[in-house]
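One-letter codes give the sequence; the fold follows as tokens. An example follows:
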Amino acid sequence: MRWATRMGRMAGVHYLDIQKLADETGGEILRDRPEELDQSFNTLITHLRTRYSFSFTSTNKKRDGTVRKLKIELADGVEKSQGKLVVKARKSYVAPKGEATNGTTTTQ
């Protein structure tokens, strides 16, 4: 499979880079080799137990369908008190497009 993927890249065939996709969406890839499954499952369980979700409301009220960047950082001193932490999150989102919830509309 790796050989076929490499040959396709050299020929200019469009392909999906799964690692890049995982990085951009805040996901991760775990190994599926039989000899590594125990470690992969333990990693998966640990990550699921220590995962947090949060939301925010953008101050940019434009409903223009544009891609907007996200940047999530830990507060100063958090790693000193909590130890090494890893933040995995998407790098952007698409703003809603169309009518705003307050009754105003955007021009197209």
